[in-house]
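Researcher: I'm preparing a figure for a lab meeting and need a structural model of a single chain. I don't have an experimental structure, so a prediction will have to do for now. The sequence is pasted below. Please return the structure as C-alpha cells so I can convert it later.
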Amino acid sequence: MKSLKQLFLLGVLAGGAALAQAQDVSALLKAADRFRMSADNLQVDTQISVFNSDGSPDKERRYTVFVQAGHKSLVLMQSPAEKGQKVLMLGDDFWLLMPASQRPLRITPMQKLLGDASTGDVANMSWSEDYTGTLIGDEPCGGEGASATATCQHLSLKAARKGVTYQRIELWLGKARHEPVRADLYVQSDKLAKQARFVVDKPAAPTMVTEMVLLDQLSNHKQTHVRYLSRKERTVPDTWLNPMFLAKNPSLE
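Model: Understood. Here is the structure written out cell by cell.
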C-alpha cells in the first residue's frame, strides 16, 4: 500500500498537471480569439450569405456589430428587409428590438438571424471567456483544402456560463500560430448542430479570420457564410447598451 505521503505527492502532482493543462488551454483560446477579435471594443461590419445544398445563393444580409468588453454586444441590421431591427447582448441576456415597438423582446442566443447564423454566432466572438476545456492532442486538421492534412491541436470545450450558444465545442487550432481551423458545435442536448470552418486572410501566415462557414447538421444542410468585411476599434456610448434606451430611440446612426 502507498503511504499517506506518497498519496499526498501523487495528489499534488495530479493537481499541478490539471492546473498546467487548464492554463495551456486558456492561453490557446486567447491566442485563437485574437484572430477574430483584434481589440476589446470593436465594430465589425458583417455580411451573411446563405447557399442552398446545391450551391445556389439563397439570401444575403448586412449587419454592423459592436462587440464590447464585458460580454456586451449590439447588432444593427442594415439590409432593407430588416432595417431598424437590433439585437442587444448583455452577458447571458439577449433582446430583439423592433423599430415599431417600444418593448424589447427577450430572445435566446440560438435565435436565428439568417440561415444557420444565430444571434450568438454574430454577437459573441470570444472562446477564452466563455469556455473551459481539455487539450486532446495533435491531430490532422481535417476539413477541406490544403489544411486538411496539416497538424492541428484539438481542444474539447465546455460552456462556462449559461448564455452561450453551444454547450460543447470540439475545436481544431493551427499548430504553429493557433488560428482557428474548424469546429464541431453542439447544443444543449449534445446533438451536433453545426460544423464551422474558418477562412483566414493569409493561409501561410494568418493574421485574422475573414470568414466563418457554417454547415447545418440538423435539418436543411444549407451553408451559411459569415464574412467579416471590416474591423475597427470603437467604444459605443453606454446608453446604446441599455435595452429601454434602444426601444425609445430607434435611430442611432
